[in-house]
Each structure stands twice: as structure tokens, then as C-alpha cells.
Amino acid sequence: xxxxxxxxxxxxxxxxxxxxxxxxxxxxxxxxxxxxxxxxxxxxxxxxxxxxxxxxxxxxxxxxxxxxxxxxxxxxxxxxxxxxxxxxxxxxxxxxxxxxxxxxxxxxxxxxxxxxxxxxxxxxxxxxxxxxxxxxxxxxxxxxxx
Length: 146
What we know:
The protein is α+β, with helices and mostly antiparallel strands. The chain contains three helices and five strands; from the N terminus they run βααββαββ.
């Protein structure tokens, strides 16, 4: 008795990264919206990141969007991309100012001006890409195994 052998070609597909993007005209409400977007996106991550990692990502987004709102006229944008393995969150904030963000020298007595230090501490650094009408600031937050 002959048993026909069938071969099945299985294609392994990589899970698509979870993404979020939004542009705001201006205003401080976009800062809270950006933090909420991080939380909403990371609740869909599998494996779920630790609470501290979610808070770190929210802080980074808050600082970058705050800088965009304070120092650039016009709209700002946010793009979040969660890696397929849910180990990193890539954050991109765009604004209309061509000026690069500058870290001020540390001064524990100063109120404010510490945001970029926090971003660098939590992400290992950030990169700035000039655009035709402004810039993009990118940072990556480790969510697991950090």
C-alpha cells in the first residue's frame, strides 16, 4: 500500500511590530496623549514589560514631546514602534525647529532643564536627524533584560 506523502511548505512569518503614530497641532494636551499612547501600546506587548519599563518609556516620551512643544512652533509628531519580540520601544518625535536639542550642564539647584539628561540615562542616548522642515529625535527604551 502506497501512502502519498504530502509536503507542506510552512512560511514562518515574523510578527509585525506594533506601531502608533500621531501628529498634534500644538498644546500641552499632546504630552498627556503621548504618555497615554505609550501605555496603551505597551499593554498589547507580549511578553508584557515590567511596570518600571513602561514608566521609563512614558517619561522619555513625555520629555521629548515637551521639548517639541516648548521649543518649536507648529505641529509635532510622535511615532512609537514596539519590536516584534517586545524587548525595545523605538520613539521618534518630530517638530518644526531646526535647532538640535542641547543638554545643559548638570545643576542640581536649577529647576527644569534636566529632561534630556533623563532621556539619555533611560535610553543610552538619542539621535537627531535634520528634516526639510525641522528635525526628528529618536530614542530607544529597553523593555526587557535591561
